[in-house]
Amino acid sequence: MTSTVKGKVEILFGAQWGDEGKGKVVDMFGSEVDIFVRYQGGANAGHTVIVEGKKIIFKLLPSGMLYPGKVCMIGNGVVLDPEQFLKELRELGERGYERARLVVSPHAHVVMPYHKTLDKAQESHRSKEHKIGTTGRGIGPCYVDKYARNGLRVEDLLDADSLRKKVADALEEKNHILTKLYGENPIPFDEIYEPARDWGKAMAPYVGDTTDLLLKAVDEGKHILLEGAQGTLLDIDHGTYPYVTSSSTTTAGGFTGTGLPINSLTRVIAVVKAYTTRVGEGPMPTEDKGELGESLRQKGGEFGAVTGRARRCGWLDMVALRYALRLNGADVIALTKLDVLSDMDEIKVCTSYDVGGKKTDAFNTNVDFLEEAKPLYETLPGWKGDISHCESLDSLPPTARDYIHYIEKATGVSVALIGVGADRNQTINLGL
Ligand code: IMP
C-alpha cells in the first residue's frame, strides 16, 4: 500500500470468532503506541489484560487505558453504553490505576437501556433454531437505530433540552414495540431521561473531535493503534450471517469507525488463537463437543469475559483462517495461547472441508455450507511441558516451533508474536 502519511497507523483485528486475546496483544504494544482507538462494537467485547497477576477486563474502554501519558479514544463507529463507560472509569480509579487520557467521539451512538431490553426481548422471541445468542448488551438494536437514523449520539447527551425531546420520541416508538410486540412493560420517561442527562454531565469532559485529533496525529507522525473488537467471522457483512454481531469487525470498519483515510494505514495485525473458539450460536466446523473441547475450555479458561458463557472449542480451522487473513489483508500474525496446546500427544489442524462428499479448501460464510462442512484434519506432533517461561523462539520445544512454521506456511503470513501465558510478559516477540 502506498502511504503518504507521516504517522504509523496500525490496525489489529480478530481473525476468528472473537476472543482471540486481542486485549493482551494491544496491552503489549503500550509503550510504543501514542493513541489507542476502539472503532466498532460496544460493551459486548471483553478484552482481558493481566498485569502482575491482576486481571482487568475492558468491555468498552480501549485496552491501552492502563498506560498513563497515552491517549485512548472511542471512535464514532462504537456504540457506547454510558453506564458501562462510567463504571469502567470508576473501577480503574478505585483500583488505583493511573490511566491514559480518554477522548470520546460526539458521533458515537449511545446504547440506551431500552436497547438492552429490546435485545433480550428479541432474542427470547426468536425460535430455537434462529437464536443468535447475543450478549444482551443492546448492540443490535442500537445499530438498528443508527442506520434507521433514529439514534441518540453522545453529543445528544450533552444538551439537556434536545435530549428531552429525543428521549420522548424514542420512547414513544420503543414502548409501542415493547408492549405491543413483546408483551413487556413500557419504560417510563423519567427512568431514561434523568440518568441520561447525568451521563451527559459526567461524560462531557471526555467528548472531543476524535477524527480531527487522529488526522492531526497522523500529520504529526504519531503511532496510532486501531483496536478491533470481536472477530472477522462475526462481521455483519463478511461473517457467518445471521450469526454475527452488528458491526464491521474487519479492518474496513477501522476507517468508517474513526474517519481516518484508508491510505493512512501502515500495518495490519491479525490476532489468531492457536485453536478455535466460538461463543453464541452459529456454525463452527471444528467444534469438538467431547473431551478435547472440554480440555481446551478448561486449560484455556474459555468462558466469556462479558457473559461468563462457556465457549465452544476445537482445533485450528485453517480454511476459515485463510479467508480471514486475506479478507483483512493481514501483514503479520500475533499467535495467542500457544501454551494451551502443551501436553497434547498430537495436534490437529483443519486444512479442508468435506461438503456433501466433495473436498474443498474454499471458505464460504453460508450457514448451510458451514453446517454441512466436515473438517478434514492433518495431524502434527504435540509437545510436552510448560512453555509459559519461554522467552525466545529457540527456547520453545521443536514441535511447538514446527506448529508455528506450519501456520506461517499454510497462510503465507509470518508470526510476529507468540503468547505463551496470560501475563503481559508471557510473550515471545519476534518483531511485532
Ligand atoms: P451481540 O454482539 O451481543 O449482538 O452478539 C452477536 C453474536 O456475537 C453472539 O454470538 C455473541 O456471542 C457474539 N459476540 C459478541 N461479542 C463478542 C465478543 O467479544 N467475543 C466473542 N463473541 C462475541
Annotation, overall tally of beta strands: 19
What small molecules are bound in this structure?
A: inosinic acid
Query: Rough shape?
Result: globular
Give the DSSP E fraction (strand runs of 2 or more residues).
15-25%
First-to-last CA distance: 19 Å
Gyration radius, in Å: 22 Å
- Percent helix: 25-40%
- Specify the oligomeric state: single chain
Tell me about this structure.
The chain is α/β, with parallel strands linked by helices and 432 residues long. Helix content is 32%, strand content 22%. The chain is built from 13 helices and 19 strands. The chain has helices at 22-29, 82-94, 113-125, 139-147, 154-157, 160-181, 189-203, 210-219, 253-256, 291-300, 318-328, 367-372, 398-411; strands spanning 8-14, 35-38, 47-51, 54-58, 71-74, 79-80, 101-104, 109-110, 223-231, 265-273, 276-278, 312-314, 316-317, 332-336, 346-355, 358-360, 374-381, 414-419, 427-429. The protein has a 9-stranded mixed sheet, with helices on both faces. Strands 13, 15, 16 and 17 form a 4-stranded mixed sheet that branches. A hairpin with a 2-residue loop joins strand 15 and strand 16 (358-360). Helix 3 (113-125) crosses helix 4 (139-147) and helix 6 (160-181) packs across helix 7. It is globular and about 65 Å long. The chain binds inosinic acid. Inosinic acid binds at residues 18-19, 44-46, 132-135, 137, 139-140, 229-230, 234, 243, 245-246, 279-280.
